[in-house]
Amino acid sequence: MPVTCIASAKSCGVTTAALALTLASARPSLLAECDPAGGTIRAGLLTGQVSAGYGLYHLAAAERVGHAELANAFASHLWPLDGQTGHRKVLPGLTDPAQAAALSRTWPALSDVLHVMAESAGHDVFIDAGRLALEAGHLHPTLTPAPLLHKADVVLIAVRGTEQSLTLARHLIRPLRTELDEHGTGADALGLLLIEDGPFRSHQVAEALQAPVLAALPWDLDTATYLTTGGKPPRGFARSPLLRYARTATEEFGAIAARRKVRQQPHPAPPSHPQLSGILDRLANRGGARG
């Protein structure tokens, strides 16, 4: 299954889109909230459920001990998004942006864990990378989780169909392509996720940014508001336009990742991490932190 990383030039509904994709997937799914500026799910969709004792920040100390300790901590800090079934999980994000510096050396090992979840445990993995920041034409080493983008199977820039959103995103495309070519899995991993808010349609957005629109999600205010603020889900939530289109998008991302892997087969496969197999044992017995 693919590891899909979603980011933006400015707030474009990245977290809401990532939640919709995670909840809509036909397969077990996982959302890692890795925005260095801080997570919002804890205070939004999961209001009142998750304390600061859970989440991304606690993985930094575990990683300094070793991969096995990181694997165990990762499994312990997942939270179920679907009650007791545990098929949809979230790793809640930072509670304070000041914590981001402590994760700079954790990102590569966390990326390994997420790929184990995708490739061995059969999860659709989505990464909320937040707003991207550049420094001298490259991803900022502290303000972005650069290693997560480098290793992702699919990298999406979320944009709205407005002139403002396209203007803000335009400056990211070329340096991000270069970054993925030099340090990642290749520039062909990059595409756009269009949030259909505004006058511009998919073909116009693709032409303006010179990048393919890999999926489009409808402007569904009721569903988006629930995913952002929590509370009672709207009537017909599971059949809402946002979740229906998100499910189609997850299938497309899987197909794109599979085609890319076929093209990359002549290249050596990345090293496996048998020491991370403890994750699978933990997740088989627990549906996340509250399973």
3D architecture notes:
With 291 residues, this protein is α/β, with parallel strands linked by helices. The protein has one domain: Rossmann fold, CATH 3.40.50. It is 40% helix and 17% strand. It contains ten helices and ten strands. The strands form two sheets. The protein has an eight-stranded mixed β-sheet with strand order 3-4-2-5-1-8-9-10, with helices on both faces. A hairpin with a 7-residue loop joins strand 3 and strand 4. Helix 1 packs across helix 9 and helix 3 runs parallel beside helix 10. The longest helix has 24 residues. The relative contact order is 0.20. The model has no long low-confidence stretch (mean pLDDT 90).
**Domain tally:** 1
> Helix and strand succession?
EHEHHEEHEEEHEHEHEHHH
Separate helix tally? 10
CATH third-tier fold name: Rossmann fold
- Which term fits the overall shape? globular
Structural Rg = 18 Å
User: Strand order within the widest sheet?
Assistant: 3-4-2-5-1-8-9-10
Write down how many β-strands occur, each being a DSSP E stretch of 2 or more residues.
10
Helix vs. strand class? alpha/beta
Report the uncertain regions: none
Taking all residues together, what is the mean pLDDT?
Answer: 90
The CATH architecture term is 3-Layer(aba) Sandwich
- Determine the strand fraction and express it as a percent band: 15-25%
CATH class: Alpha Beta
Largest sheet: 8 strands, mixed
The CATH homologous superfamily corresponds to: P-loop containing nucleotide triphosphate hydrolases
Helix content: 40-55%
N-end to C-end Cα span:
23 Å
